[in-house]
């Protein structure tokens, strides 16, 4: 009996580029963004720049949130209608109810496996690409799901904010702290705990963005002795080509082979604001 076709699926917040999703045949599940009274599909009919412009025009903020179990059920039903099996990756459960809702949808569906990414953005995207390689090697959906359940412990996500205005506006940081941070040119580093998926404040950087990112890249890579240099993501919420290229050159000089530059989804970007940039990679062995 032939093994069922395996489909790798992921929330749109995994931030793989459209080209990567097409090349690796990843099915995307778009989050919804409510902005100025209208419902949008993340990165389909709205972009982060529209959200940033709205905030600076009149302090408009989007409403973001995980989709309902019924929406996930419909997504999974469409993918499995021909007998295919699905491995789906969610935005980390510490950040969203997406995993809970997707798990509820899949509970009574045969051949649907749901993975808690315990990360965000391309920290989950790295796990998705690893699962694609397993699929391409001929592994079954059940075996991929078993292997993928622990990938988060090897995936490392962090980033540096360029402004704290959006955190303050969303109630995630006191307004006074954001104001003083701007006056002092403070740019906080944010780390994602790859065991729980929760975010925490890391090193506080001061200075111009170019110099801050140079120190951030050096600090981040120095923490891990066994980084997988086959691939690394530079994911940002809108930086100049000059800055993105400078970070890319730093990584090339350190021996990284495939350096993917991607733009964060609206869901991710709306919380961190413009100018945020992170490097995201895997290690050979699990490490915090």
Structural description of this entry:
Pfam families: DegV (PF02645). This is DegV family protein. Keywords: Lipid-binding. It comes from Adlercreutzia equolifaciens subsp. celatus DSM 18785. By secondary structure, the protein is of the alpha/beta class. It has two domains: 111 residues, Rossmann fold, CATH 3.40.50.10170; 129 residues, 2-Layer Sandwich (Hypothetical Protein Tm841, Chain: A,domain 3). Helices cover 38% and strands 25% of the residues. The chain is built from eleven helices and 13 strands. The strands form three sheets. The chain has a six-stranded mixed β-sheet, with helices on both faces. The protein has a four-stranded parallel β-sheet with strand order 2-1-6-7, sandwiched between helices.
**Class by SSE composition:** alpha/beta
What is the overall shape?
globular
- Please, how many domains? 2
Percent strand equals: 15-25%
Element string (H = helix, E = strand) = EHEEEHEHEHEHHEHHEEHEHEHE
Counting DSSP H or I runs of 4 or more residues, the number of helices is: 11
Give the biggest sheet: 6 strands, mixed
What portion of residues is helical?
25-40%
CATH architecture of the largest domain: 2-Layer Sandwich
Low-confidence stretches: 173-180
Radius of gyration: 19 Å
Mean of pLDDT: 92
* Number of β-strand runs: 13
CATH topology of the largest domain: Hypothetical Protein Tm841, Chain: A,domain 3
Q: What top-tier CATH class of the largest domain fits best? A: Alpha Beta
InterPro entries: DegV, DegV_C, DegV_domain_contain
Keywords: Lipid-binding
Pfam family, one: DegV
Protein name: DegV family protein
